[in-house]
Amino acid sequence: MRDVSRRRFVQATGAAVAAGTLAGCTGNGGGNGNGNGNGNGNGGGAEVPQEIDDFLSEANLYDGTITDMTGEDEVTIMVGAGDGGLAFDPAAVRITSSTTVVWEWTGEGGSHNVASVEDSESDFQSEIVGEEGHTFNQSFDNTGIQLYVCQPHETQGMKGAIEVVEE
Predict the structure, then answer these.
(1) pTM over 0.85
(2) Closest listed residue to residue 135, CA positions, set 79, 93, 86
(3) For the chain, which terminal residue's Cβ has fewer other Cβ atoms within 10 angstroms, N or C?
């Protein structure tokens, strides 16, 4: 009988530890996580706007962070990045108004374009191109959220976002 009691104690303790561990993974808990397990992770304490986080939740190469490139006159985003060439890198960037974004094609993943989606602050669209080294430039003067996709690969998670903030 003593063996059975010890076994039940061990089982109950293991179940309690597992439940406590899982409870810590399921929500925000007041910390810096956003409930999806990836936190903001950018070390600077800058929050990813919810609109961007929601839009990029299924995007390739999006890890819940936003790359802060404020203060730069020009920033480059690679088109056709990642395994299989179906991503933008970085997927999310923060820039200052009046910054020019240069999308540069890697030549991977087939033919791509860059096209704003309906909820974006600006309206822009490049041609569909597959060649390495091709570029598309867009200057962002208005603050706000810019959401964009590669139209041929949107359903495969090729999405990106830009937050434009004041200088």
Answers:
(1) no
(2) 79
(3) N
